[in-house]
User: Fold this.
Amino acid sequence: MNNLPYQQEKVIQRTQLILSSFEHWLGHSLWKEKGLPEIQGSSEEIAQQLFGVPFAVASHGIETDPIFNYGNQKALDIWELTWEEFIKIPSRKTAELVEQTERDRLLAETTKKGFSYFSGIRITSTGKRFKINNGIVWNVIDEQQINQGQAAVYSDFYFL
Assistant:
């Protein structure tokens, strides 16, 4: 198995779904959203670039209690986790109990609309709280438009 997450076939495929789904729902690329030039290259090169961007990108699957299946390096750094730790955590664990109702509402709204803008307080693995502003969460779908989970992106955040 390859050492770096973005070199793993499963992660390369997830990266493609994250990016194509963002464009499907928002009508433009994630790169454009963040003011970056469009990325060209192989799917492996694109996966490597998304892993290294200076904003957080994370996604979870479709389990009953959805588990993270992608987090770029910025997301891993913010949540103070390794890749191996991150992909075992239910995504609900990143929000404090008092924030769960709002998070649940946001994910339900996203399921219906395809994407939503959000702000909210989240918590790292070591208990540090941080506020996200102007985040976007969207449904991740495959080529047949079948739901494969949800993803989020944010760059505007600060620790409380």
